[in-house]
């Protein structure tokens, strides 16, 4: 199965923001909204993989350089709130789903 290029996935995601929502649209994968939901799952899945790898790097190697200025978002979130954010919460925060 051929993977869709990231630009195509993002176009479907954005199109879904502007689609007309009707009851049960999320159940119909051929609608613009249904395609956007599928694209969102793909984007979140890719983001989850990046976050997972970054968490592993941080845990293996420690922080980037020990200075607050050099920390990325994942590193900041791992240290915030006493380190209580889960991987899923970090992905949600990075994606913008609050």
TrEMBL record:
Keywords: Membrane, Transmembrane, Transmembrane helix. The chain crosses the membrane at residues 13-33. It comes from the Eukaryota. This is Uncharacterized protein. It comes from Zizania palustris (Northern wild rice).
